[in-house]
Amino acid sequence: MIKNRNLAIQLFKRSLPELVSDACQLEGINFTVPEIQTLLGGMTVGNKDIHEQEIALNQIKAWKTILSDLLVNKVEIKKDYSNKIHHIAAKEDAMEWGKFRSGNVTIAGTDYLPPKTEELNAKYSQMLKDFSIIKDDYRKATFLFFTLCQKSVLLR
């Protein structure tokens, strides 16, 4: 795969409404892509719960922060950076935001048990170690995506 930073940034910008809509859907909040585009335009969406709109706006801010940081090469694959993004994305929504969760959680509809709170730092450190060994950028991105999806309960 040939690297093309400018194309990647262009695709990121174009995908922003879908990224936000997908993130909202994962939280059980039904915002369509056109509704997210309305929020991106600075307007509110009629007949939508204020709290749900705030969650969507937090997602927009988080994705825009990543994009802004990406443009000036400030995206870091580090705990501090993921906590920074979580602080924006989960503000006033999660029990705690901007840090690893301090309590155990379950995921409705599944018997999967997320890692215990006392295991989170070690699991994150191991992920970073495994990530640093990978040389190919495409494989690094894929590894990070799937590993963070699997461990998304770190910050909940």
Overall form: globular
End-to-end separation: 34 Å
Helix fraction by DSSP (H/I, runs of at least 4): 55-70%
Mean pLDDT: 90
Q: What is the H/E string? A: HHHHHH
- Let me know the number of strands: 0
Number of helices: 6
Radius of gyration, whole Å: 16 Å
Number of separate structural domains: 2
Folded structure, characterized:
The mean pLDDT is 90. The N and C termini lie far apart (34 Å). Helix 1 (5-26) packs across helix 2 (33-40) and helix 1 (5-26) packs antiparallel against helix 3 (50-71). The protein is 58% helix and 0% strand. The protein has helices at residues 5-26, 33-40, 50-71, 79-89, 120-133, 137-150. It is globular and about 45 Å long. The chain is built from six helices and no strands. It is mostly helical.
Fill in the keyword field for this structure.
156 residues, mainly alpha, 6 helices, 58% helix, globular
Task: Please outline what is shown here.
With 156 residues, the protein is mainly alpha-helical.
Topology:
Layout: H1 5-26, H2 33-40, H3 50-71, H4 79-89, H5 120-133, H6 137-150
Helix pairs in contact: 1-2, 1-3, 3-4
